[in-house]
From TrEMBL:
ABC transmembrane type-1 domain ranges (all copies): 63-250
InterPro entries reported for this sequence: Bact_Polyamine_Transport (IPR051789), MetI-like (IPR000515), MetI-like_sf (IPR035906)
Protein name: Putative permease of ABC transporter
SUPFAM superfamilies hit by this protein: MetI-like (SSF161098)
Family indicated by similarity: Belongs to the binding-protein-dependent transport system permease family. CysTW subfamily.
Domain of life: Bacteria
Organism for this UniProt entry: Mesorhizobium prunaredense
Amino acid sequence: MRALVRIVSWLYAIAIYGFIFLPVVVLVLFSLQATSFPIPPFTGPSLRWYDAVLADTRLTSALVNSLLVAACSSAAAVTLGFLSAWGFARFALPGSALLRGLITLPLTVSYLIIGMGLLVLFNWAGIPKSLLAAGVGHVVINLPLCFAIIYSQMGDHQINIERAARDLGAPEWKVLLLITVPVMAPAIFAGFFLSMTFSWDEFVISFLLTRFDTTLPVEIWNLLRSGLNPKTNAVGSLVFAVSIVLVVFFELMLLRRKPA
């Protein structure tokens, strides 16, 4: 009976992971297809479509735009999230529970609603569609995540270290930069790389808030509008590879928080 349960458990695990990763495996496999149609049978391997992607200026520009927007918006989100978390953790603010709930509220709101709201706001303010507007949208959706990660890691032992630094004559800005930030570095980097992951392949807000300079997910959507294109498999594989790298960094930052 125990052997049967083990076999069923293994089959269930294989089915679950196969359901999750089979589309990715197919995507990567047919990105190496040698022919012009990303359909069976497989003919390859070949880097033909990766060469085509790197030779396409629109795709490479969109790739650079995605990296730029992801890096800048994640840096802004993690900075604002850290300062907000530090303020709530170190000072007794009136209505702090309500304010914390308002900061994390965007986590429960659809990206479509957030994007449409920002589009209406920017149109009213006369701000044109651009990568900057998309970056602001990414800050809006990533700041609550960074705040939640960093705030959850702020404990009483850090307060004692900060108090000791103040007793030794350190001004507040030195305590913040030389004590609090290094102690919280794993949580800060975890929030940054997780934000990078979400921003890197975010489509809805980027689609609504950009016009001529677009990000890579929007450019992939433009390719798909014309039907099956082998370059989309290569681009998708590159997006997946970058996402995996960012997630690995995130996991490494979390592991550093665990005591040996």
